[in-house]
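Incident review: delayed structure delivery

Summary: a single-chain prediction request sat in the queue longer than the usual turnaround. Root cause was a stuck worker, restarted by the on-call engineer. No data loss occurred. The affected request and its eventual output are reproduced below so the record is complete for anyone auditing the incident later.

Affected input:
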Amino acid sequence: MSVQVLNGPIIAAGEALSDGLDCRAGAIVRLTMPAGWSPANLSFQISSDGGGYNDLVDFDGREIVMPVVPGTAVVVGMLDQYLRAVAFLKIRSGSRTRPVPQPVQRDFSIAIEVP
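Output delivered after worker restart:
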């Protein structure tokens, strides 16, 4: 196995939800945070086809929300059971009930493990 870094997704200035990123080539293993991140947790939307997206929740129906630190890399091993099957990913600043718009564009990078 090797690791491939994907540029994106991107949250546009004034928005809380990113564009979608195609992660079908492998399993998500790391997320790199933008250095200028305005304080907010992350939550996620996922899709099987890049068309319709749904909020990512756990087996009890609780939204997956992750605290983060600007300019760091997050190894997502603890979310492996949820992210391993993601085909397309969107990142949200804040939660679905409390989105936090970012004042400027925020560019992420996602590392995937590929065969």
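Verification: The chain has one helix and nine strands.
Action items: add queue-age alerting; document worker restart procedure.
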